[in-house]
Amino acid sequence: MIGRLDTVVIDCPDPRALAGFYTQLLGMHVIHEDDDWVTIRTDSDAPSLAFQKAPDLLPPQWPGHDRPQQFHLDVRVDDIEKAEQRALAAGAKRLDGGGEKFRVYADPVGHPFCLVW
Q1: Coil, strand, or helix at residue 23?
Q2: Cα dist. 107→7, 37, 56, 61 in Å?
Q3: DSSP element (H, E) containing 26
Q4: What pTM was computed for the model?
Q5: Assigned CATH topology for domain 1-57
Q6: Among candidates 99, 98, 111, which has minimal Cα distance to 71?
Q7: Model pLDDT, residue 94
Q8: d(CA 17, CA 35)
Q9: CA of 88: how far to CAs of 11, 37, 105, 107, 116, in Å?
Q10: Distance, first Cα to last Cα, the chain
Q11: How far is the C-alpha of 105 from the C-alpha of 115, rounded, in Å?
């Protein structure tokens, strides 16, 4: 092993707003914040999520390849119906697609993620 995953960084126009969405979705809390960067994490030593200011971001389009997703997060849930209600209330948007054990959404900026169970 060369190293371990420390942080996944997501570009977005408003780091504070998108961090707020993901704190609700994942139960994390802010550990660092300034005008251009916000980092969230659980209380464990698990990897962090960080949100980097990118004012001219063109969000990915799902599905499609004109502006590909580049990456997405899978979020494990116990109850898909309750999790979906909470994600939508927090600002997520349901997208086309999905499968037997996952549903596809976009965060408030347009980055796709899946709720999996």
Answers
A1: helix
A2: 18, 17, 17, 12
A3: helix 15-26
A4: 0.84
A5: 2,3-Dihydroxybiphenyl 1,2-Dioxygenase; domain 1 (3.10.180)
A6: 111
A7: 97
A8: 11
A9: 21, 24, 9, 9, 15
A10: 30
A11: 8
Measured distance CA(70)–CA(103) in Å, rounded: 18
| Each residue's pLDDT tens digit, 13-61 | 999 999 999 999 999 999 999 999 999 999 888 999 999 999 999 988 8
- For residue 49, give the nearest of 111, 115, 116 by alpha carbon: 111
Which among 102, 60, 108 has a CA at the least distance from the CA of 84?
A: 102
* pLDDT surpasses 90 at 2: no
For the domain made up of 58-117, give the CATH fold: 2,3-Dihydroxybiphenyl 1,2-Dioxygenase; domain 1 (3.10.180)
Q: What is the pLDDT of residue 105?
A: 94
